[in-house]
Every structure is written in structure tokens, then in C-alpha cells.
Amino acid sequence: MAQDTKAKFSHITISLHWIVGLTIITLLAVGLYMAENEVYSLYTLHKSVGVIVFAFVAVRVLWRIKNGWPVPASDYKRHEQILAKIVHWVLIIGTVLMPVSGMLMSGAGGHGFGIFGFEIMAPNPDPANPGEALPLNAFTAGIGHEMHEILGFVMMAAIALHIAGALKHHLIDKDETLKRMLGKTIDV
Ligand code: HEM
Ligand code: HEM
User: Fold this and answer.
1) Confidence tier at 76 by pLDDT (50, 70, 90)
2) Bigger pLDDT: 44 vs 2
């Protein structure tokens, strides 16, 4: 399997970055919209895509462990390299904890979740209140909910910084950081 080099990223790194990255941006937007406006018809879609992306996230984490982190494309300042590293860590940990907290909230909350029609955790309807869910563990569901909400905002801030960084490299420093993530072989 091709490893990343300074001159060129492997297809695995590039595909996983864009599949996971663009899906997460969509899930953050859909999640915020549906929770704020109580659009319950979007919940199944949000949960299904969230569970699917978790599989890609798991492969990505294993790939990072095997392959290591990318070497900076150019010799930019040390404090910028440290900031980029911190943001990459926040993003990768966030991509793991968002689906995990979502599954905890929905699973322990008795709402259940799955991948479209395929049920992974069944809902637990409350016999006393038709149409309502009976939590399996309200405390765990509450922790999952809090984590999901707070981490969602942390992710949005980290992604904004990350995109600003990518644009700064591309437009101000005029280096090849972004082009490398788009598949180009760069001069080293
Ligand atoms: C339009 C949006 C995005 C752009 C333009 C972008 C751009 C980039 C670029 C240019 C790099 C390479 C940095 C380097 O060479 O050191 C990178 C790496 C990375 N990006 Fe993004 N990114 C975007 C969205 C995201 C999102 C939404 C996430 C996470 C949820 C993310 C997570 C990461 C991570 C963890 C790395 C480190 C390398 C890796 O694990 O693949 N990115 N990004
Ligand atoms: C990377 C994956 C995911 C991202 C980025 C994401 C993001 C979000 C965001 C930003 C919100 C709005 C939070 C709020 O204001 O309350 C939200 C809500 C929600 N998410 Fe996710 N989510 C992901 C995966 C999941 C998964 C896997 C599940 C369940 C299996 C899930 C279940 C929910 C539910 C039920 C809500 C609504 C909570 C409420 O009504 O307050 N999410 N999500």
C-alpha cells in the first residue's frame, strides 16, 4: 500500500480526507438545522449517514496510526506548524467522538438508530406514552447529548480555522499544501 511522501499523498489519505471531511461538514449543518428547528423527518437520515461515516473514520484513524502524520509541504513557521498539528488532532478526535456520542444519545435515550432500514439498536417505545421513547439509561443519554452538542461547536470552530489555514497557504504563502491534498505531486 502506497505510503504518503512529502511530494505526494496516497490515494487513501486523499480519498478518506475528502469523504470524511465533506460528510462531516454536511452532518454539522444538517444536525444544527434539524435540532434547532425540530425537523424530526431528518433525524433518520442524519443518524444513518453518521453511522456510515464512523466506519470511514475508523479506517482513517488506523491509516494515520500506520502511516503517521503528513510532513508539512513547505518550511512554514514553527508556531504555524504547531497550530496546524493541534487542529488536526482536534479534528481527528472530533470525527471519532461525534458519531460515538450520537450513538450513545440515541441508543441510551431509547430512540434507537441504524443505517436507513437496517436496525442496529432498536427503539424502546414507552407503553405509557405512545409515540414517546423510554430511555434505557437517561444519564448516559444526557452525557451523549451534551458531548454531541458541545463537540459540534468545537468541530465547527476547528474546521473554520483549518479552512482558513488551507486558504492562507494557498493564497498568501502560495505554497502547495492544498494542491497536495487535491492529489498533485509537488516539488520538494
Ligand atoms: C473545504 C474544507 C477543507 C479543506 C480545504 C481542507 C484542506 C486540507 C489540507 C490542504 C490538508 C493538508 C495539510 C498538510 O499538508 O499538512 C488537510 C489535512 C487534514 N484535514 Fe482537511 N480540509 C478541509 C476539511 C476538513 C474537515 C471537515 C476535516 C475533519 C472533519 C479535516 C481534517 C483534516 C485532517 C485530520 C488533516 C490531517 C491529514 C489527514 O489526516 O488526512 N479537513 N486538510
Ligand atoms: C460525524 C458525525 C456527526 C456529526 C458531525 C453530527 C453533528 C450534529 C450536530 C452539530 C447536531 C446539532 C446539535 C444540537 O444543537 O443539539 C446534531 C444533532 C443530532 N445528532 Fe448528530 N452528528 C453526527 C453523528 C450522529 C450519529 C451517529 C447519531 C446517532 C446515531 C446522531 C444523532 C443526532 C441526534 C438525535 C441529534 C438531535 C439532538 C437534538 O434533538 O437536540 N448524530 N448532530
Assistant:
1) confident
2) 44
51: nearest Cα among 105, 99, 14: 99
Residue 1 in this model has a pLDDT that exceeds 70 = no
47 lines ligand 2 (CB under 6 A): yes
pLDDT at residue 75 tops 90: no
Regarding the beta carbon of 53 and ligand 1, being less than 6 Å apart is answered no
Under 8 Å CB-to-CB from 47, ≥6 apart: which residues? Answer: 102, 106, 113, 114
Q: How many angstroms is it from 42 CA to the middle of ligand 1?
A: 27
Secondary structure, 3-state, the chain: CCCCCCCCCCHHHHHHHHHHHHHHHHHHHHHHHHHHHCCHHHHHHHHHHHHHHHHHHHHHHHHHHHHCCCCCCCCCCHHHHHHHHHHHHHHHHHHHHHHHHHHHHHHHCCCCEEECCEEEECCCECCCCCCCECCCCHHHHHHHHHHHHHHHHHHHHHHHHHHHHHHHHHHHHCCCHHHHHCCCCCCC
Fold for domain 11-181? Fumarate Reductase Cytochrome B subunit (1.20.950)
Instruction: Write the residue with the smallest CA distance to atom 7 of ligand 1.
Output: 166
- Assign 119 a pLDDT band (cuts: 50, 70, 90): very high
Q: Where are the domains of the chain?
A: 11-181
